[in-house]
């Protein structure tokens, strides 16, 4: 493994760089330092295994440096795909120290499920950004090797889509439901407060376990013990049913249609249409499914009163009122109707999020005018490069180059100010969470390369 200080003399934990060349060298050093023989760990502190959507974003970064690693990253992840098509949100590294992460493989006990892979994994999923990442990685570095990788990935990406639009279509309207906040990627966003309040749990449940996140980060920056107890209770509920999705309405206490997960689902079909063309498959079905997903997203999750997208709690049938960055992500969809495009742009440019051609502050993950905005706590206010990147892609897709450039400059300034941190203070830009974070480095590389 290449050590973190060997690339261009850059130390990922040292003084933040200022110029584009130095920023790129920092990002390269971060990815090299996190490479783990066949995948990239998100960080060397809190995250010692392979995470699903992290690997998708990280593959984009590798596509600019070592395309072979981009394809190996995705191949390693999809080699752990379950028989039903789900791609687990964690693939555990058997070489990692026992007890180095909670909840670990013993807690998940994926072997209880029919169709689980031989390697230990979690039983949850994350936003299906993998097809989009694979397509963009191919475009960044097309080659015969890349086409071969796409041919191997294509049926597995299709199986992932079928799982989410089939077994997880709990609401019956063509959208995927999540069974845990971790599946959204925005673990303890205020978007989940209302649905989580119905999950029976007591913080005392954590006495049987030991959280590892608060040994690597300030507890004031992480989910509360009560929230974590609810996360544990939800995993226990899903595991008790051997991770089956049949009958979830009657037995599982958290079922939500998430705007980000379903935006990624629609974007995946658009990407799969492009991939299908490369590998010699008719792309028509993917385009039709993409249209249906976008229509269902607008019908189910768009609120014309607020002019933005909200999660739908399937237990109550209501839209969750919190205005978070989840509501901006549907801009990623190229077929989002013009009315919703303009409404999302209005929301993004509002004081809640502050998107502009010249941004005074980073894009927050939650409405910065809300009373429950927390600038330090995980997903409840801080700025994240992956959310910025998704919105940046959407702005470029819908022909808003000035806003895209403003957001790109803001994202780049975060790393120039604080380094490749996991997330950032949404007012000062100070680095928060894990240092030397993989997707921050990878997506910075993509932004720098695209211009």
TrEMBL record:
Q: What family does the database annotate?
A: Belongs to the glycosyl hydrolase 63 family.
Q: Which organism is it from?
A: Micromonospora yangpuensis
Name under which the protein is recorded: Mannosylglycerate hydrolase MGH1-like glycoside hydrolase domain-containing protein
The record places domain Mannosylglycerate hydrolase MGH1-like glycoside hydrolase at 47-440
Keywords on this record? Glycosidase, Hydrolase
Q: Which GO terms describe its biological process?
A: oligosaccharide metabolic process; protein N-linked glycosylation
Query: What are the protein's GO molecular function terms?
Result: Glc3Man9GlcNAc2 oligosaccharide glucosidase activity
A Pfam family (short name) is: MGH1-like_GH
Q: Which domain of life is it from?
A: Bacteria
